[in-house]
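call fold(seq) -> C-alpha coordinates
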Amino acid sequence: ESFMGTEFTYDDMKGRELEDDTHNLLKEESYQGKSCYVVESLPKDPSSSQYSKRVQWVDKESLLPIRIELYDKAGKLLKVNEMEKYQKVQGFWSVIKNTMKNVQTGNSTVLEIKQLVYNGKVDARVFTTTFLESGRL
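ret:
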Protein backbone atom coordinates (compact mmCIF):
# COMPACT_ATOMS: atom_id res chain seq x y z
CA GLU A 1 0.00 0.00 0.00
CA SER A 2 1.04 3.57 -0.64
CA PHE A 3 2.66 5.35 2.31
CA MET A 4 0.48 8.41 2.99
CA GLY A 5 -0.47 8.80 -0.70
CA THR A 6 3.14 8.86 -1.95
CA GLU A 7 5.07 6.71 -4.43
CA PHE A 8 6.70 5.03 -1.42
CA THR A 9 4.99 1.98 0.03
CA TYR A 10 5.05 0.88 3.65
CA ASP A 11 7.41 -1.92 2.56
CA ASP A 12 9.74 0.65 0.96
CA MET A 13 9.83 2.61 4.21
CA LYS A 14 10.60 -0.34 6.47
CA GLY A 15 13.06 -2.18 4.22
CA ARG A 16 13.86 -5.88 4.27
CA GLU A 17 16.00 -8.11 6.43
CA LEU A 18 19.30 -9.06 4.79
CA GLU A 19 18.57 -12.79 5.09
CA ASP A 20 15.18 -12.48 3.31
CA ASP A 21 16.90 -12.13 -0.06
CA THR A 22 19.63 -13.70 -2.16
CA HIS A 23 22.20 -11.05 -3.09
CA ASN A 24 24.42 -11.10 -6.17
CA LEU A 25 27.22 -8.67 -6.96
CA LEU A 26 26.59 -7.77 -10.61
CA LYS A 27 29.48 -5.36 -11.13
CA GLU A 28 31.35 -2.38 -9.76
CA GLU A 29 30.94 0.99 -11.46
CA SER A 30 30.88 4.72 -10.92
CA TYR A 31 27.50 6.39 -10.37
CA GLN A 32 27.00 10.08 -9.60
CA GLY A 33 30.78 10.31 -9.28
CA LYS A 34 30.83 7.66 -6.55
CA SER A 35 32.49 4.27 -6.73
CA CYS A 36 29.69 1.71 -6.28
CA TYR A 37 28.87 -1.94 -5.94
CA VAL A 38 25.86 -2.90 -8.08
CA VAL A 39 23.92 -5.57 -6.20
CA GLU A 40 20.88 -7.54 -7.33
CA SER A 41 18.59 -8.77 -4.53
CA LEU A 42 16.02 -11.50 -5.17
CA PRO A 43 13.47 -12.49 -2.51
CA LYS A 44 13.97 -16.06 -1.31
CA ASP A 45 10.19 -16.28 -0.91
CA PRO A 46 8.62 -14.32 -3.80
CA SER A 47 5.34 -13.95 -1.88
CA SER A 48 7.21 -12.02 0.87
CA SER A 49 7.93 -9.05 -1.39
CA GLN A 50 5.93 -6.78 -3.66
CA TYR A 51 8.93 -6.70 -6.02
CA SER A 52 10.46 -9.47 -8.11
CA LYS A 53 13.91 -7.96 -7.60
CA ARG A 54 15.86 -4.89 -6.53
CA VAL A 55 19.06 -3.61 -8.09
CA GLN A 56 21.04 -1.24 -5.86
CA TRP A 57 24.04 1.01 -6.48
CA VAL A 58 25.81 0.99 -3.11
CA ASP A 59 28.33 3.76 -2.47
CA LYS A 60 31.57 2.08 -1.37
CA GLU A 61 32.42 4.89 1.08
CA SER A 62 29.13 5.23 2.96
CA LEU A 63 27.73 1.77 2.15
CA LEU A 64 24.39 3.47 1.47
CA PRO A 65 22.37 2.57 -1.61
CA ILE A 66 22.30 5.75 -3.74
CA ARG A 67 20.09 4.31 -6.49
CA ILE A 68 17.58 1.49 -6.18
CA GLU A 69 15.66 -0.01 -9.10
CA LEU A 70 12.51 -1.89 -8.07
CA TYR A 71 10.95 -4.41 -10.46
CA ASP A 72 7.29 -5.50 -10.49
CA LYS A 73 6.16 -9.12 -10.30
CA ALA A 74 6.33 -9.36 -14.12
CA GLY A 75 10.01 -8.39 -14.01
CA LYS A 76 9.51 -4.91 -15.48
CA LEU A 77 11.10 -1.81 -13.98
CA LEU A 78 8.47 -0.19 -11.75
CA LYS A 79 10.20 2.43 -9.62
CA VAL A 80 13.57 4.10 -9.16
CA ASN A 81 14.64 5.53 -5.81
CA GLU A 82 17.46 8.11 -6.11
CA MET A 83 19.32 9.41 -3.05
CA GLU A 84 19.97 13.04 -3.92
CA LYS A 85 21.60 14.07 -0.66
CA TYR A 86 23.23 12.09 2.09
CA GLN A 87 25.72 13.03 4.75
CA LYS A 88 27.13 12.05 8.11
CA VAL A 89 24.87 13.08 10.99
CA GLN A 90 26.25 12.46 14.49
CA GLY A 91 28.71 9.99 12.93
CA PHE A 92 26.08 8.02 10.97
CA TRP A 93 25.71 8.13 7.18
CA SER A 94 22.13 9.29 6.63
CA VAL A 95 19.88 9.88 3.63
CA ILE A 96 18.64 13.47 3.80
CA LYS A 97 16.78 13.72 0.47
CA ASN A 98 15.59 11.09 -1.96
CA THR A 99 13.10 10.77 -4.80
CA MET A 100 10.97 7.76 -5.65
CA LYS A 101 9.82 7.80 -9.27
CA ASN A 102 7.24 5.38 -10.63
CA VAL A 103 8.51 4.91 -14.18
CA GLN A 104 5.29 3.19 -15.24
CA THR A 105 3.04 6.13 -14.27
CA GLY A 106 5.49 9.04 -14.33
CA ASN A 107 4.55 10.05 -10.77
CA SER A 108 7.21 10.82 -8.19
CA THR A 109 7.61 11.74 -4.54
CA VAL A 110 10.45 13.66 -2.90
CA LEU A 111 11.22 12.79 0.70
CA GLU A 112 13.40 15.33 2.49
CA ILE A 113 14.43 15.31 6.13
CA LYS A 114 14.65 18.84 7.49
CA GLN A 115 16.10 17.95 10.89
CA LEU A 116 17.70 14.65 11.88
CA VAL A 117 18.84 13.87 15.41
CA TYR A 118 19.85 10.46 16.68
CA ASN A 119 19.06 9.49 20.27
CA GLY A 120 17.15 12.71 20.84
CA LYS A 121 13.99 13.27 22.81
CA VAL A 122 10.73 13.10 20.85
CA ASP A 123 7.55 14.80 21.97
CA ALA A 124 4.95 12.06 22.68
CA ARG A 125 2.39 14.05 20.65
CA VAL A 126 4.30 13.06 17.49
CA PHE A 127 2.88 9.56 17.89
CA THR A 128 -0.77 10.62 17.58
CA THR A 129 -3.15 10.23 14.67
CA THR A 130 -3.55 14.01 14.45
CA PHE A 131 0.18 14.58 14.02
CA LEU A 132 0.60 11.72 11.56
CA GLU A 133 -2.23 13.10 9.42
CA SER A 134 -1.25 16.77 9.59
CA GLY A 135 2.44 16.84 10.47
CA ARG A 136 1.69 19.52 13.05
CA LEU A 137 1.65 19.47 16.84
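The two ends are 26 Å apart (CA to CA).
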